[in-house]
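Tokens as discussed.
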């Protein structure tokens, strides 16, 4: 049975690149916002959602994490890491001069990733934030020649834009992690990508803020020699000083180490929730 895949749209976003890399032949639907995409899975309008999770330069996409924790608790069933290449896109009627650009549109993360280029070449332009890089390209395609978008080559192709400047991002080693969310435990990845590492993500809440609490939590992993690739605290939204922790462990969930960690942390009064154990896929730079 063909699955329906949802993603942050419109066409031309990096999320769409991630979706096309993982899924071939499935029906795909774009959504204007990350919450709308995740709600569609929860309401069973689609089977799978692909949403941005973390960027190497700008860090965690907090909207994704917070919505997943506080609103719609969907399991993470896979992850794909996509190289990010940002370009300056203009419509075909625009000149080839930077000085004629009066407005630049893009997602806030894309704007931040290109800060030095904008500072050096486009100080005269007003910056406008959009819901996605694809939406920025769509707007510029319908705008006058003084508008430009920051986006990828797929966006340029989808909306008939020309690339005025390539690779305008500040740092070359820029990647974004995308989470694949689904109520199904093992969605079929149809692209032929071979999975690399395995990862497990845990949500841990502490009983109260006391000295040495985080140290005790990390010790449960350390003495078992479990490698953690990320530890992040986020507010529980129940009052100042109340936080939960998202911890990524670089191995698949097993029936030996993880139950031991869970029992040890629960003995300390912590609550441990499994958010997903899943394969990690990696796109090559030449695929973007």
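Sequence:
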């Amino acid at each position: 049975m063909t699955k329906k895949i949802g993603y942050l749209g419109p066409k031309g976003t990096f999320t769409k690149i991630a979706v096309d890399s993982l899924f071939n032949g499935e029906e795909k639907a774009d959504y204007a916002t990350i919450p709308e995409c995740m709600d569609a899975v929860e309401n069973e309008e689609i089977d799978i959602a692909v949403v941005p999770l973390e960027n190497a330069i700008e860090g965690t996409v907090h909207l994704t994490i917070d919505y997943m924790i506080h609103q719609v608790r969907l399991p993470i069933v896979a992850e794909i890491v996509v190289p990010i290449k940002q370009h300056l896109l203009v419509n075909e009627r625009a000149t080839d001069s930077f000085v004629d650009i009066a407005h630049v549109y893009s997602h806030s993360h894309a704007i931040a990733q290109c800060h030095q280029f904008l500072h050096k070449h486009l100080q005269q332009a007003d910056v406008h934030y959009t819901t996605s890089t694809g939406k920025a390209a769509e707007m510029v395609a319908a705008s006058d020649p003084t508008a430009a978008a920051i986006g990828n080559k797929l966006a340029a192709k989808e909306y008939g834009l020309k690339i005025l400047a390539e690779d305008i991002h500040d740092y070359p080693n820029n990647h974004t992690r995308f989470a694949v969310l689904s109520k199904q435990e093992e969605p079929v990845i149809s692209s032929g990508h071979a999975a690399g590492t395995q990862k497990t993500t845990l949500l841990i809440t502490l009983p109260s803020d006391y000295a040495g609490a985080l140290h005790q939590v990390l010790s449960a992993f350390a003495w078992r020699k479990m490698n953690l690739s990320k530890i992040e605290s986020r507010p529980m939204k129940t009052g100042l000083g109340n936080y939960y922790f998202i911890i990524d462990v670089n191995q698949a969930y097993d029936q030996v180490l993880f139950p031991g960690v869970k029992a040890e942390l629960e003995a300390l009064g912590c609550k441990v929730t499994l958010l997903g154990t899943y394969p990690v896929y990696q796109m090559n730079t030449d695929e973007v």
